[in-house]
């Protein structure tokens, strides 16, 4: 069975072009969403995925209608493949049920993995270069010795709550407890 999925990003956009193309291609059922692709909760897509059975094919008008990113798209198609469900994109002419379509999609996957590895290598090299120049990574300390002494002085007054002290110093409770040794009174 061919199951179609269509998506537009806003309520003002129209699904007709996609749904017409999917029906013309033979989709018996077309699910749709009017929501941004970056949103992870897409009810139409979830319903389409639930309806699919081994041997079925999920069809989209264009690749970017399905995945939030190339990585997400590859993960989705990989999950479909594991369940023996095909994938087809009309505009890009990709059909994972054919050897050529599988090859094209695996090339996309290889390119995405290559890109992730390049980014990882550049990040590591950049951090190493920064450390070699004496730069430290991570967040800067929120409290210096002066602020710690101020917090300890404020704690001596029983009328000051931890919340009051944190507001006065412009810090969060976690930072307060990290830097200031509190002693319980007997």
* Distance between the ends: 74 Å
**Would you count the extended β strands for me?**
5
Count of individual helical segments = 7
Report the major sheet. 5 strands, mixed
Low-confidence stretches: none
Features:
5 strands, 49% helix, alpha/beta, 7 helices, 186 residues, 5-stranded mixed beta sheet
Task: Provide a brief overview of the structure.
By secondary structure, the protein is of the alpha/beta class.
Helices and strands in order:
Elements (H helix, E strand, L loop, with lengths): L1 E7 L7 H9 L4 E6 L8 H9 L5 E4 L9 H13 L3 E4 L4 E2 L3 H34 L12 H11 L6 H8 L3 H7 L7
Parallel strand pairs: 1-2, 1-3, 3-4
Antiparallel strand pairs: 4-5
Helix pairs in contact: 5-6
Summarize the structure in words.
By secondary structure, the protein is an alpha/beta fold. Helix content is 49%, strand content 12%. The model has no long low-confidence stretch (mean pLDDT 86). Strands 2-1-3-4-5 form a 5-stranded mixed β-sheet, sandwiched between helices. Helix 5 packs antiparallel against helix 6 (162-169). The termini are far apart. The radius of gyration is 27 Å and the shape is elongated.
